[in-house]
Every structure is written in C-alpha cells, then in structure tokens.
Amino acid sequence: MSKIPRERTKGMGKRPGKIGRASQQPAAEPLNIAHGALPSREVILRFIADHPQKASKRELAKAFGLKGDSRVELKHLLRELEQEGMLQKTRKSLIRPGALPPVTVLDITTRDKDGELIGRPAEWPEEMGVAPAVAIRQSTSAAGRNGKGKAPVAGMGDRILAKIFPASDRGGPAYTARIIKILDKRRGALLGVFKDAPGGAGRLLPIERRGEEMVIDPEYKGEAKDGDLVEVEVARLGRFGLPRAKVLSIIGSVASEKAISMIAIHAHGIPYTFPPAVVAEADDAKPATMSHREDWRDVPLITIDPADAKDHDDAVYAEADPSPDNLDGVIVTVAIADVSYYVRPNSPLDREALKRGNSVYFPDRVVPMLPERISNDLCSLREGQDRPALAVRMMFSKEGRKIGHTFHRVMMKSAAKLSYQQAQAAIDGTPDDKTGPLLEPILKPLWNAYRIMTRGRERRQPLELDMPERKILLKPDGTVDRVFVPPRLDAHKLIEEMMIQANVSAAETLEKKRQVLIYRIHDGPTLAKQEVLREFLATLGISLPKGGNMRANNFNMILAKADDTPHQTMVNEMVLRSQSQAIYSPENIGHFGLNLMKYAHFTSPIRRYADLIVHRALVGSLGFGEGGIAPDEEAALDDIAAEISTFERRAMAAERETVDRLIAHHLAGRVGEEFEGRVGGVTKSGLFVALPDYGADGFIPISTLGTDYFIYDEAHQALSGEKTGLGYRLGDSVTVRLAEAIPLAGALRFEMISEGRKMPTAVRSFHKAGRRDASRARKQAGTRPPRGRR
Questions:
Q1: Looking at the structure, do residues 320 and 284 belong to the same domain, yes or no?
Q2: Who's near 14: CB < 8 A, 6+ residues apart?
Q3: Same-domain check for residues 613 and 541
Q4: What's the Cα-to-Cα distance from 534 to each of 457, 523, 524, rounded to whole Å?
C-alpha cells in the first residue's frame, strides 16, 4: 500500500477549449447598472444566480467593468456577503448557499411530463433537504468535448458530469445541465441482500441506512439464493404494502470473504475490473529505456513503506551539501515512479485511470487505479531492479529553508526496501541484519535531514490536529479481528515531510515554466464556520480571533490551549469540522492546512490521477522526452480537476461505509452489552456516540434520552433538559448500551445509560431566552406549541 502525505484537513489564465461558454445559453435579462460602477448587493446576488459560470471575482469585475479601487470595494463586498451567509466559495467560484456548483456530478433519476431527463446531484448534504432537480439537455451537436467525436447521450440511471446553468423557465426545475461526459451507465438499479420468504418468494434487505425493504415475487428472483448480494430494479410501486422488485444480477454471497467492501464498490459505482483493452495494453508494456534519462543506479535511494505494501512509488536519499555556500545544509533527493512513461494521454490505460481517479483502499482489498502489471511491477521501485523515475534534488539550509531544487528524469535502482518499523528500530538502536549496514551511510543522514527540515516546518506552522487514525485488522475470513491505533513514528513524519517538499517543488517549477497544472488546494474556514467555532470555544473560556484573515497557526494556538485538558479531543474535533475540504483545481488559492502557497500532488502517480497530470506537465515543460501533457488535456483541466475531486470524495465515502459495516458486523452479536463511549456529535435529532476502542459510532435518538424536553444548542454543542438542566455535550464520556446493530447498513443504535451532567449556566440561560422568544412568537401567530421529544 502506498503512503498518503497527511493533509491535516483541503491559476492560470483562460485556456482554449473550455466547456460551457455563456454564449451557448439563453441570455439573461440585462442588469440596469452603469458600466464601471460598483453594483449593489442585490445586483451581485442576482448576477451570480443567473451566471454561475461567471461567478468569480475576476469575472464579476470584468462583467461590470470594475477597475482600480472599485475592484477592491468589490472584494470587500463579496467578503461581507460570504460572512453573512449570502454566498459561499466553491472550487474557484462563488455560489448562493444551497446552489449547485458550475460543474456537478448528477444521477439521472426520472423524466418530466414531456419525456425530458431529470437528474439530481449525486452528493447532497442531508441537512439541506431535498436535492434540487436538474433538467438534462441532450446536445444536438455531433461534436463532443473539445470538438472531437460525438456528444455524449445519456439515459435513465446514468451518472454524468455536467455543466450547470440556471433555468430560463421558472415553471420547471431550477437548473438545466449540459452533459460533459457519462461517468457510469445505468445506475437505476438498487442493491440489497436477498432473503428467502415463504412460498418461494423473497425479500430484499436494504444496504442503505434509509433504504426500504422490498418483496421479490418467485418469478422475479431468478437464481438468487438466501444471503446473495443482488442488484434489482423496482417492478411495481403500490399505494399499500411493500414495493416489489425484480432481480437483475447476482453479485455474490454476503457470507463470502470481501463481500462487505463489494457492497460499497457497487453502491458507489466504483470500477473494479479492468476492460480487456486496458489489461492488454498493460501486459504488452515494455520496460523503460535510458532515452532522455540520467543514470542514477548508483545513488543509494531506499523505499520506506508499510510492511504489507505491494507497490513502492517513492524512494529517498539525503546527504550533506558539499557547497561552501550552504554550510551544514543538506541535499534531499526524492525519486518517484515514472508512471507517465507507461500511461500516455488518451490511451486505454489513461482513460480507465481517469475513470477511477484514484485507488480505493478497503481493509480487505485495494481497488487500484492502474493494473498490477503497471502498479506492482513496471512502476514499483523494487529493491535491486532498474526502474524509471522522476526525481527532485532539494537543497535545504541548516535552518530548514529550501534554497533550490532541480528535477531529473532518471533510471534508478533501489538499494533497500524497508518498513517504517524497521527503519525506526534501526535509528532507535536496534538495527537488524538488513538495516545495520545502512545505518551510517543512509539512515542517519536521512534523519539528520529530517531534523533540519523540521525547523522549516515549525517556522511554517501547518495545522497540527491530533486525530489518531485507527486501523482494522481482519481475520482470514474477512471479519474483524481487532481495531488498533498504530504508533505515529518519526519514520512516518520523515517521509511525509519529504513528500510535501517534493510536491511544493513540482508546483514551483511548473509555475516558473508557465505550465498549466492541477493544484491541490485547501481553502480557509468560511466565516460562518469560524463563527460557530468561536461561539463553541467561548463556552470553554477559549477565544478565537475575529476577522477573515485566519491562519493555521491561529488554530494551533487554540489546540495548544486545549492540550492535556478534558476538552482536548472535543476541541480537535471542532477545529477539524471548521475546516474546508481539500480539492483539485487548475486555479491556485494555496493550501491553508499545510500553510503553503504553491502545492501540487506529485508523489503518488501510481494511485492518484492528479499526480500523473503533474508528471506529464513536468516531462513536457522540462523537455524530458516522451509522455508529456497533451494540448487537449491542458484544455480540459477544469473538468478533470472536478472529476477527480468527485472521485476522491466517492472513495472516501466508500471506505468509511465499509469500515462502518465491518464494525457493525463485529458488534452484531453483542446487542444488550454496555460500552464506554464519548459523545462525538450533537444534532437536533440526537447524539452520536463514538466507541474509541472500536473506531465506530452509533446514534441515540433524542426521543430515548429521557422524560425531559431536550433542547439543541449549536453554540455549546449540547442537548440539555429544559426542566432539569441536565444534558450532554460534545466530548462527554458516557456509558451506553447497544440496542441494535444492522451490519448491512453499517448502523448502530445505542441507549444512554449515563445520567446527564449539569449544563453550564450560560447554556441554561440561552435555552430559557430561546423558549421565551419562541413562546412569544407562537402567541403572536396564534399557534400551539409543538410536541417535544421526551
């Protein structure tokens, strides 16, 4: 398994061939405003709603002819609107809250009365209610993306990547969409587990937490047997009784090994088998030659990976800098597998890699982005074997400042394959037969370089969240053996820091060459999220500076104040929730969490498509020979970045759901037992309680907490009783009883055993004031109070 540099959380000019130009849509009603004058708040909001494809500060300034001081005033106005919750930032645009971003993944779910396709966003937060409907406009043009080939034609059940526009017809859906590409065909089928029922019929047990059980009549069950994971379509919906379904295909038995991850793979539409053309291209690939390469086979680069890693895409080496201008400085070399040599633009391998976006890691399997012939063989930096690589040599001063770097296309030979634990043990004084000879010439110089680089990291002050990562160890039958927190070693941190600096070097070089690329960007917390965090921290006596120009070290000071206090875990979680999500984009805004202005993923091209794009950009811009970025690829970077950001979220959701199902299956036989847990989430509907020993969480509905009327206080992250003043806050240690476990849905339901604790006076005062205001409003409206959950 490859390493993932830990991100503690989340441009270029106009390019030819961009998709979805405004001229292709009906013109909106003109806005009556003098050209060059700062528009009003209302005009800005209307323009963004009507022109989502032009909703950036640059496009707004251009549309209204703003220059000089007017552009500065526009910036302040947009910041005010964002602070008030009237606007929110996306990948590179501004949208109205609840609006769809300009490029969205849609699932086509139905047709309107005229037979036109209707889609809804594939990812939509539950707290925002029903996902908006989008009318799909099929292209009448014969040209597809970039004017090549046929335009994609979608059908019912397809998942598509689409350009979003506001609808001109106010009587129908709020949006229209033009198809960029079809991501997956026929997603109308549902997944579930077939269970035998009397009379030869069957039942479909849902795998989603909110899924509905269905009846499968004997003539519709096909060859399905009890316990099979099946794909069905709804055969009939009636006014009474359960809906009826028809089995379309049998995926396999849920009792078999790896069945749990297959549920997530199918539910999220993750491609997991390679088409014959892709396998054939991989099998036919020949080892790289020395053309356009430097011979680095004598450089003692080593790989340091997890003990069970099958592919090795990075190797490292460090030495003292011999330059008299850099006394006590070091040279750090990072070599990365040269995937761009084997995976060329628009080849079957490339198209399949883009379709996947990244490798997906489950406890019981890996769904790779590239076939094993590429990922585990030709591109894996195996010990003692010649392998092509892209390498960067970085010079650091003794203070840890990077003072220069150079890129090279090389042929290398790994001097050793080590695990994190092996390398760390050698440094700690217990080398083995393999690491003993490497200690003085290789390992100690690496650790010396790491100490120097740490000085630069400490000065940079990235966000330092303390969130232990739990791992699941499985038995041979695919069930959970145990859950544990692996130690965080200096060996992990060394590789992480060297990979981060290599990623920075890649972005800097490509910017210097004026080469378009895909950045890894991470926006700062929105002002609304900052305010929620500020109110919460105030309840703990911790202050958060006001103002929109927050930096990572501001949050580090908050975390330091919470260290070694009962609130440490709670504060870390709330700071994490306040952060934005890192995404990919051709437009650079920097990386807030790492506190870096230029950052691009370069170090894992075996498992991330973004890194492959950056490799191609380096090969092309530095004149390194074959495998450079293609012009049509450059023109499509906006769409590619949107796709791979979506696929990354897809992988994260599938991985999380698989862990939930495995843990629920593990605990299913322990219903009725009591567990020690911690309140990990507080909502209007109830409490989420985490079991630290199992890496799982379950839900306690508010209606089961007790006889009191419980009130939700977002600022204090608490539920407290109106009469007793007793309640529960985020981070509270509690004892719970497992009331229900649903393995297929990955759901646990708990009952609270612990008594609530006395809520702070501020919380009770807040509740009383809120109840008085609500009572006064109801009297004015002449309505009765609602029934509370008791």
A1: yes
A2: none
A3: no
A4: 27, 18, 15
Give the chain's domain count.
6
Exposure on the CB side of residue 43, measured as CA atoms within 13 A: 16
The b-or-e profile of 180-202 (16+ CB within 10 A means b, else e) is bbbbbeebbbbbbbbbeeeeeeb
**Read out DSSP for 560-629?**
HHHTTSTTHHHHHHHHHHHSPPPEEESS---BTTTTBSS----S-TTTBHHHHHHHHHHHHHTT--SSPP
| pLDDT, average across residues 145-169 | 71
**Residues 466 and 355 reside in one and the same domain:** yes
Residues 114-154 have pLDDT tens digits of 777 888 887 776 555 567 888 888 765 444 444 445 667 87
Task: Point out the least confidently predicted range of 155-164, 619-628, 678-687.
Answer: 155-164
Q: Which 3 state secondary structure label does DSSP give 531? A: helix
Both structure tokens of 713 = 């206080």
Give tens-digit pLDDT for 93-112: 555 555 677 778 888 877 77
Averaged pLDDT score across all residues of the chain: 83
Beta strands in 488-553 (DSSP E): 519-521
Candidates 463, 505, 471; CA nearest to 487 is: 471
Domain assignment of residue 18, yes or no: no
Q: Which residues of 417-444 are buried (b: 16+ CB within 10 A; e: fewer)?
A: bbbbebbbbbbeeebeeebeebeeebbe
Torsion angles phi and psi, residue 660, rounded to 5: -60, -45
If one counts every other C-beta atom within 10 angstroms of the C-beta of residue 288, the result is 21
User: For residues 343 and 612, is the Cβ–Cβ distance under 8 A?
Assistant: yes
Same domain? For 290 and 368 the reply is yes
- What tokens does 529 get? 């999220």
Do 394 and 436 belong together in one domain?
Answer: yes
List the structure tokens of 669: 């036989």
| Tens-place pLDDT, residues 698-744 | 999 999 998 889 999 887 889 999 888 899 998 889 999 999 998 88
Residue indicated by tokens 């699932």: 107
How far apart are the C-alpha atoms of 445 and 739, rounded to whole Å? 55
For the chain, how many residues are written? Answer: 790
- CA pair distance 237, 230, nearest whole angstrom: 19
Considering the domain architecture, whether residues 386 and 472 belong to the same structural domain is answered as yes
- Residues of the domain holding 536: 525-579
**Which tokens belong to 206?**
């849902």
Of 600, 623, 653, which residue is a domain's last? 653
The residue behind tokens 């203070």 is 399
Q: Which of 579, 595, 625 is the last residue of a domain?
A: 579
Question: Which two structure tokens, joined as six digits, stand for 523?
Answer: 């926006």
In a domain, 661, yes or no: no
Q: Are 164 and 291 found together in one domain?
A: no
101 neighbors 166 (Cβ within 8 angstroms): no
Measured in degrees and rounded to the nearest 5, phi and psi for residue 775 equal: -65, -45
- On whether residue 67 sits in a domain, the answer given is yes
396 and 306, same structural domain? yes
Q: DSSP string covering 91-145, please?
A: SSSEE-TTPPPSEEEEEEEEE-TTS-EEEEESS--GGG-SPPPEEEE---SS--G
Asked if residues 651 and 360 have their Cβ atoms less than 8 Å apart, the reply is: yes
Give the CATH number, domain containing residue 235.
2.40.50.700
776: number of Cβ within 10 Å: 10
* Strand-pair category, 175-184 with 159-166: antiparallel
Strand partners, 567: none
Q: Is residue 267 a part of any domain in this protein?
A: no
User: What distance in Å separates the CA atoms of residue 575 and residue 565, rounded to the nearest whole number?
Assistant: 16
The single-letter DSSP state of residue 358 is: B
